[in-house]
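Researcher: Re-running this chain for the archive, since the previous output was lost when a drive failed. Same request as before.
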Amino acid sequence: MNIWKWIKRTVFIAIILVASHALYQMQLGAIPCMLLSFYLFRLAWNEFKKGKATSCPQQKEVLESKTESF
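Model: Regenerated structure tokens:
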């Protein structure tokens, strides 16, 4: 992973942690959970999109493997 990407991600997480602590002190604990869920969903979505093209077999490959078994 690129060092600048890692630094940006680490700084972003640190800011989220400080904001979460402040919001929890004001009795608004659901907001940090919601923001964290959006962030984690975005990370998972990006990983899913990266691996989707390589991990899914093409329709032709699936059909050929199905007809070979008969």
